[in-house]
Write a structure and sequence with these properties.
With 425 residues, the chain is α/β, with parallel strands linked by helices. It has helices at 25-39, 42-45, 48-62, 71-77, 92-109, 150-162, 164-193, 196-205, 218-221, 237-242, 250-265, 280-284, 297-302, 369-379, 382-391; strands at residues 117-119, 128-130, 211-215, 270-274, 288-291, 308-314, 317-322, 332-334, 344-353, 360-366, 401-410, 413-424. The longest helix has 30 residues, at 164-193.
């Protein structure tokens, strides 16, 4: 074999056996090629079930959706389970992933020396990738010599002898830069952790997937169906423009714009849907912000099991009810009064992990649009969220939370929001 024969090398700058996430197209191609080799092996070739699980979780991770890999998501997408299936009694996903781990171990015990390793750690559904030690430090296009290297070693030794002091100085310069950079990053992390606005929105800002902004519409607020035809190819343009599923409240749209501006200012991608157009799959795909209460069915879906929930004792009266104080009924609005006579409104703010989608969700839900608008101002104003941080329990940044806000209303205009109750869990 020629002494200068070049071997294929792994991704750049990975420490020996350290897990990494394929980010470049080359790394993703190498991961997909390794997946093909694994799926063609005896450990997976004769099992469509386990091969489908492994292929799904690897492809989702390479596509940037690794944070979607929850038990429920895999059950729905791979095993065709209904969205609301009971993961506590149906162990199909857990059993299958455990078997996939075993089969991956069997594969790498065979003739897989020098290959990219794909592993699924216990307690996780997201795969990790590791290069074997001999490829860990190499970058694409960097030659790896094999055969008799005595001449090369001697040449390198002579060169190094003459410049050893220069390399020593360079080492300490680089080390100092690394230390200073690390200190700067640590300082910024602490500073951002002390910012209540960043702390509240962290589940959204840390997501690698686009954030869904879902707004309520007239159709969501209707108590009885109308005679306007549903969306169909025969619907006229006039009917479409005036339809309940195409019409939203202008104040709700202003609030939606505030959230979009906040997210985009932080470099996040957003997508928009009305409550009529959004699907359960949309909500499963990543974090969601829901705007609206009585006009947004996705908001109403979350309410029944919360401490602070919503009741409609009559067609015109709406109450935010505290399950721990059922006699309290003053967080209420009467829809039958003239709108200019309204002096108060209330809103529910919710930030939690949706137990059905297993994705973060933020809800801005005013009893009327005045409450929704006031809550939108509250959630996008750093000074307002400092008020929340001042009364929140330690570690509130990582907790689910439900907040009741009130706002004064004067001649159809809302004032600042005031926190009247909270619940953290």
């Amino acid at each position: 074999m020629n002494a200068n024969q070049v071997h294929e090398a792994g991704p750049i700058a990975h420490s020996p056996n350290m897990a990494f996430s394929p980010g470049t197209e080359l790394e993703k191609e190498q991961a997909r090629n390794q997946l093909k080799r694994i799926l063609a092996s005896p450990a997976f070739h004769n099992s469509k079930r386990y091969a489908a699980v492994l292929k799904f979780i690897v492809e989702q991770t390479l596509g940037g959706y690794g944070d979607r890999l929850k038990e429920r998501t895999i059950g729905i997408e791979v095993f065709d389970r209904p969205p609301d299936y009971d993961t506590a009694t149906d162990h199909a996903v857990r059993s299958a992933v455990a078997e996939v781990r075993k089969r991956l171990a069997q594969y790498y015990l065979g003739n897989a020396e020098g290959e990219l390793r794909i592993e699924i750690l216990p307690g996780s559904y997201m795969p990790q990738f590791r290069w074997p030690e001999e490829k860990a430090y190499l970058s694409p296009g960097f030659p790896q010599f094999s055969g008799d290297q005595s001449g090369v070693a001697a040449a390198l030794s002579d060169s190094a002898h003459g410049s050893r002091s220069s390399w020593a100085r360079l080492f300490w310069i680089v080390a100092a830069v690394v230390v200073l950079a690390g200190a700067a990053v640590a300082y910024l992390d602490v500073a951002r952790a002390d910012d209540p606005l960043t702390a509240f929105w962290k589940p959204m800002l840390s997501s690698r997937t686009p954030i869904l902004l879902c707004i309520g519409n007239v159709e969501g607020g209707q108590q009885t169906p109308t005679d306007i035809p549903s969306l169909s190819p025969v619907l006229t343009l006039r009917e479409f423009h005036n339809s309940p599923f195409s019409t939203v409240n202008v104040y709700d749209s202003f609030t939606l714009a505030k959230f979009a501006g906040l997210l985009q200012a932080n470099g996040k991608k957003v997508r928009f849907e009305s409550q009529s157009d959004a699907t359960f799959t949309d909500l499963q795909s990543g974090p969601t912000i829901l705007v609206g209460l009585l006009n947004n069915s996705w908001t109403e879906r979350l309410m029944p099991k919360l401490r602070f929930t919503v009741e409609e004792p009559t067609p015109d009266k709406v109450i935010i009810r505290d399950r721990e104080n059922l006699s309290k009924s003053d967080w209420s609005i009467d829809y039958s009064i003239p709108y200019l006579d309204a002096t108060k409104d209330y809103a529910l703010v919710l930030r939690m992990v949706d137990p059905k989608t297993e994705q973060p969700v933020v809800v801005d839900a005013g009893i009327t649009v005045f409450g929704t608008s006031a809550a939108g101002d509250f959630l996008t104003n750093p000074n307002e969220l400092k008020k929340l941080a001042a009364i929140a329990p330690p570690g509130w940044e990582k907790k689910n939370m439900e907040i009741v806000l009130s706002t004064d209303v004067i001649r159809g205009r809302h004032g600042p929001a005031t926190i009247v109750a909270t619940n953290f869990w």
